[in-house]
Design a protein that fits this description.
This protein has a domain of 52 residues. The longest helix is centred in the first third of the chain and has 16 residues. It has 75 residues and is mainly α. The chain has three helices and no strands.
């Protein structure tokens, strides 16, 4: 009775195709603003760790309010 030996799958290499795909997806998320909440969490933890963080719903509501309130024209 011998067990079948299968080689372990190699770990993804950071510079490999999986790493390049991850970098591309991260770039697209940054360009579209899809990573805004993650960036908010990182910044908040670094600057205000003692304060409670906003939930994703609260964060996006505050962003909508910030973006669309006030004067939006130049003249």
């Amino acid at each position: 009775m011998s067990a079948a030996v299968t080689p372990d799958r190699p770990e993804p290499v950071p510079g490999g195709s999986a790493g390049r795909l991850r970098a591309l997806l991260d770039s697209i998320r940054a360009l579209t603003g899809d990573d805004a909440y993650e960036r908010y969490l990182q910044r908040h933890q670094a600057t205000h760790p003692e304060q409670a963080v906003l939930s994703p719903a609260e964060f996006y509501a505050a962003e909508i309010e910030r973006r669309y309130s006030g004067v939006t024209r130049c003249c």
